[in-house]
Amino acid sequence: MLAAEEPRAPPVTVIRGVFGAGKSYLLAVVVLLFVRLFEQSDTAAVGNVQPWKLLISSSTNVAVDRVLLGLLSLGFEKFVRVGSIRKIAKPILPYSLHAGSENENEQLKELQALMKEDLTPAERVCVRRSIEQHKLGTTRTLLREVRVVGVTCAACWLPCMNGLTFPVVVLDECSQMTEPTSLLPIARFECEKLILVGDPKQLPPTIQGSEAAHENGLEQTLFDRLCLMGHEPVPLRTQYRCHPAISAIANDLFYGGDLRDGVSEVERGPLVPWLPTLCFYNVTGQEQIERDNSFHNVAEASFTLKLIQSLIASGIAGSMIGVITLYKSQMYKLCRSLSAADFSHPDLKTVQVSTVDAFQGAEKEIIILSCVRTRHVGFIDSETRVNVALTRGRRHLLIVGNLACLRRNGLWGRVIQHCEGREDGLQHASQCEPQLNCFLKDYFEKQAEEKQKKKNEKEKSHSQKDTV
C-alpha cells in the first residue's frame, strides 16, 4: 500500500487499553482509516490486483458486534457479519450472512421465528430488514465484494469463508483468548498486518481441562507473548465510563495509579437522590453450596431483588440496571426471583443478570454486585475477576456482601475501605430496608389508585351508555 521508498510499518500493533477507554470505538475508526487506504491503494494499482480486505475477529460474538456497531455509529455500512442468527446483535442482522444452517429456507424460518419473540420496536425493524435482505440473497455475493468482514475465531472455518484472504486482521479482546484461538484467523486468511487489542488486567482465557493444560502454558495469550517478544503496547490509560469514585478503586488496586479519568463527578451524577454512587450493603446471610460446587446466597438474592424493585419504583429503567454475581448458582437464583416477583412492571424483564465472565466489555448505569460467600472468600479474590466486576457501572456501584467475611481478605478489605470513605458508602441491609419498603409501598399504592381510577372511569362510561 505504501510507496517502495517509504519505510514499512511494523507488521504487529499491540494496543493495551483499560476498561472504558473506548477500545472498540478506536478500532472502528482504525478500520475506516484502513478502508480509505485500501481504496487509495486499489486506485493506484496496475493490473488485476485482488482488493485489500480487513477481518474483525474475537473469541466472542459480543466483541465482534461491538466494533461493527461502532462502524454503524460512524455511518459505515459496507461490511458483512458472518455468524449464527441467534448470536448476532439485532442491529447487525441486516448486514449478516447467516451460517448456522446451509439451508436457505431453514435460515428464513429462524429469522421469521425471531419476529414472534419479545422484541423492542427497534429490534423488530432490524429483524424485518434482515428477512428482506435474506430474500434478496445478495449477502453471499457481498461477502466477496466488501472490504470489511466480522466473524468470531471459531467461525473462521465456515465454508462461506473459503477462498478469502485478509491481509489485515484485527483481534479484539485478545488478552481473553487462548493463543491457538488467536492464531486461527491469522493462519487461515494470510494475515500480513495484525492489530491486537486487550487488557491483561481483566479476565484471562477460560481454560477447562486438566492441570497439565495450565502447567504447559496454555494460559499464555498471543497478546502476552508478543509483549514479551518486545512489541511495545500502545497504552490507552484514560477511562470514559465510570464515576471517578468507582474508577479510583481499580486505579488503586490494579493499575498502580496510572489510570486517568475522562469523565467528571458531575457528568456521572446520581440517577436518583437517595442512591449512593458507591456503597457496600452488608447482608448477614449464609452461603449454600450446590452439587456442581457453585454457591448461592438466599439473603443476598432477596435483598438484591428488593433493591432492583425500589430502583424501578423510583423511575429508573430496568435496562439501566445490571446485576453481576461471581457464581452461576446465584445468577440462576436471582433470575428465578425476578421471574417470580410480585411486581408487575415490564422493566423488570429488562434487568440484565449474569456472571462476571459474561459481563466483560459491557456496562450499565447501575451495577449491583452480589458476592455470595460468607465463610471463605474462595476464588472471588481473583484480581482480574474483581477488576471486571467493579468497573462495569457508569454512575453507581452497589456491592451486596458479607462484611465480616470479605473484610478479612486483603483485596476485598481495600475495596470496603474505599466504600467507607464515601458518604453512605457502608450500610447494613437491615437498616436501609425500611426505606426500600417505603418506596415499594408508595409504588403499590399509586398502582392501586390508578387501577381504581380506570375501573371507576370504565363503570362511569358503562353507566352513561345505559342511561342513553
Q: How does this structure look, described?
A:
- 39% of the residues are buried.
- Residues 1-5 have low confidence and may be disordered.
- The chain is globular.
- The protein has an eight-stranded parallel beta sheet with strand order 4-3-5-2-6-7-1-8, sandwiched between helices. A six-stranded parallel beta sheet has the order 15-14-16-17-11-18. The chain has a two-stranded parallel ribbon with strand order 9-10.
- Helix content is 42%, strand content 17%.
- It has helices spanning 23-44, 61-73, 104-114, 121-136, 139-145, 179-188, 211-215, 222-228, 244-253, 298-313, 328-340, 356-359, 383-390, 403-407, 410-420, 429-467, and strands spanning 12-17, 54-58, 79-83, 96-98, 148-152, 168-171, 193-198, 234-236, 238-239, 260-261, 278-282, 287-289, 295-297, 321-325, 352-355, 364-370, 393-401, 426-428.
- By secondary structure, the protein is α/β, with parallel strands linked by helices.
- The protein contains 16 helices and 18 strands.
- It has two domains: 12-29 and 51-203 and 220-236, P-loop containing nucleotide triphosphate hydrolases (Rossmann fold, 3-Layer(aba) Sandwich), CATH 3.40.50.300; 244-447, P-loop containing nucleotide triphosphate hydrolases (Rossmann fold, 3-Layer(aba) Sandwich), CATH 3.40.50.300.
Short description:
It catalyses: ATP + H2O = ADP + phosphate + H(+). The protein has 468 residues and is of the alpha/beta class.
